[in-house]
Structures are given as C-alpha cells and as structure tokens.
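Long-time lurker, finally posting.

We've been working with Yip1 domain protein (Crateriforma conspicua) and I want a structural starting point before designing mutants. I don't trust myself to interpret raw outputs, so I'm hoping someone here can both generate the structure tokens and explain anything notable. Sequence follows.
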Amino acid sequence: MRSDDSGTNPYATPSPLSVESSQNASFVGTDEDLHPFRTIWTSPRRTVRQIVSIDPKLHVVPLACLAGVGETLDRASTRNAGDDLPLAAILGIAILIGPLAGLFSLWIGSHLVRFSGSWIGGVASREHIKTAIAWASVPSIAALPLWIPQIVLFGSDLFTQETPGLEAQPMLLIPFLAFALVELVLGVWAFVLLCNTIAEVQGFRSAWRGFGNLILAGAVVVVPLLGLVLVVAMLSNA
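Top reply, 14 upvotes:
Generated this for you. Predicted structure of Yip1 domain protein:
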C-alpha cells in the first residue's frame, strides 16, 4: 500500500531544510481543479489535500449519513437481523437510524484517530480527520444503489440465516455472488483510500503509517475491552 502523492505534506511540521521547497510547492488546487467525487478514487491524498485547503466541511455530514445507512444495512445482513425483524423494519431502521449512526461513528472515529495518531507523530486536527474519514467512504457509498436490485431479487434472504428464495431458484446465486464481489471490492478500496487520506492529513509520508494509525485507534477500544473480559473471567473462576 502506498500513497498516490509523495510530495511535501502541508500538515507536517516544516524543518529548516524543507522551508524553501515548501514555499515553492504548488500542490493546492483551485476550485476548478477540485472534482473530489471523481479524483478521490485514484488520487485520495491530492483530493483530501485540496478539500481541507478549500473547505474541510465540504459534504462531510451527508457523506457520513450515507455511509451510516450502508453500514447499518451491512450489519443487518451479517447479523441475520431478518430472523427477528421484517424486511420493512430493517429498511426503516437503516434509513432513519443509519444517518445518526454514521454521524456518531464519524465523531468517535475522529477522536480515536487523532488521539492514537498523536503517538506516532500525527498532526491533524479533528476536523481534518473527519474530512479524511468521510471522503474515504465514497466507494462504500457508491455501493448503496446496489441494494435496490438486491432487495428486488433476493428480498429478505439478504438478512436471514436461511435463504429459501435462493434455494428455490439456484440461478439467483450467480447475481448474488456478483453483487457480493462488487461490494467486497468497493469496501476494500474504501479502506485503501482511508489509509491514504488519514496519512495525508496526519502528515505521514506513507499510507502504511495511516494504516498503523487506524490499527492503533482500534486498539484503544479493543485492548481495554479484552482486559475487562479477562478480569471478569478470572473473577468468575476464582
């Protein structure tokens, strides 16, 4: 994994040797250069750099809300929510609660990434981290329209452990797997973009360091929880 830009980063603390080169940098685009919904796919670092230079809040809220809808549908599918809820209820929850969940995820995620990133030299503000997270979700949001034909074709089978519809019509397995593959590719690409956008705003040269920042952010939550589980287990066995 590598970034698409290796130039001087505007978020890194300038050193005496880099002052002259940074003065000559021309990486900040103009409004005419900014086509973020297109360029984020292949030039995430340059795109997020332009966005935070022009308007860090650009589309952040709607992107987070849409990402929340997609994440809610994904979780309902993986957790077989249809075993307990009708399809209409699942869709209603995704549409009404999903946006709020997306905003909360963005809020807590920006805190965790900023906090853990400071351990490895990250310099981004929480606002810029929110920009990086929101815009990296574009590929995942692009998968949202795929839910429409899937619901038409597969119905509640998308959200249940048992899949009677697919079993009754084996030919539906082909489009089912095709949709799953497309969503997997988009999800992986969204994560690659996230590593790059986080690296950019944090002042990291390598997207791998952005990946490390995300791992640390997850560890901030997971490690204490594991410790708590171990303590409870030890006390219960005492």
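Before you design anything, note these points.
The radius of gyration is 21 Å.
The chain has one domain: 38-237.
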